[in-house]
Amino acid sequence: MRSEDLRLYLVTDRPLSLGRDIDWIVEEAVKGGATMVQLREKDCSTREFIELAAKLKETLKPLGVPLLINDRIDVALAVDADGVHIGQSDMPYKTARALLGPDKIIGLSVENMEDIRVANELDVDYVAISPVYSTHTKTDTAAPFGLEGLREAVKLSIHPTVAIGGMNMKTAKDVMACGTDGIAVVSAIVSADSPCEAARNLLEVMK
């Protein structure tokens, strides 16, 4: 994985997609410049998750955009995804690495400075600093880092970093100024009238 892949990291969320097909949203976002996609599904069956992941992989592979699966190692293995993203309460990193092998991307959410220190002892591919701001998209998160906390977290981490939580047109520029490699975006793209324009506009303000 290249650190540039984290620059505009799309995290899917079907309840926020305004009834539109996730495959279409992802394809449009990538046209606008999204550099990585994480498929996050909390409420669908394993079969449906695998079918959706396989469809997205077919869309993204020729475009050279990595597809990561949130939490579900089994789904990632089933479709030979590029990797997974795991949180602090998910499968332990070492177990996930043993199952996936050395060549797959594994990202890890970190919720405080101690999480980052622990992650520094692991050969994860990146860490997601979560959340920078409080957000309605994901409510089971720790206290927000804020910009000062994000700046400190980026300095502490030995791994590439992506910021998540409240990422949008108003916050992206200040967040990138803290030194993170990228931002992970949910509703600002998934719920946008034009996911393509939303992605393009975010990249513009991040320059």
Describe the structure.
With 207 residues, the chain is of the alpha/beta class. Strands 1-2-3-4-5-6-7-8 form an eight-stranded parallel β-barrel, surrounded by seven helices. Helix 1 links the parallel strand 1 and strand 2. The longest helix has 15 residues. The mean pLDDT is 96.
Helix content: 25-40%
Largest sheet: 8 strands, parallel, barrel
Major beta sheet, strand line-up:
1-2-3-4-5-6-7-8
Q: What is the overall silhouette? A: globular
The arrangement of helices and strands along the chain is EHEHEHEHEHEHEHEHH
What gap, in angstroms, lies between the N and C termini? Answer: 21 Å
Rg over CA atoms: 16 Å
Number of strands: 8
Class from helix and strand fractions: alpha/beta
Helix count equals 9
Poorly predicted spans = none
Q: Classify the beta-strand content into a percent band.
A: 15-25%
Give me the secondary-structure topology.
Elements: E1 8-11, H1 22-31, E2 36-39, H2 46-60, E3 67-70, H3 73-79, E4 83-86, H4 93-100, E5 105-110, H5 113-119, E6 126-129, H6 146-156, E7 161-164, H7 172-176, E8 182-185, H8 187-190, H9 195-206
Parallel strand pairs: 1-2, 1-8, 2-3, 3-4, 4-5, 5-6, 6-7, 7-8
Helix pairs in contact: 1-2, 1-9, 2-3
Nutshell version of this structure?
With 207 residues, the chain is of the alpha/beta class. The protein has nine helices and eight strands.
Characteristics of this structure?
alpha/beta, 207 residues, 8-stranded parallel β-barrel
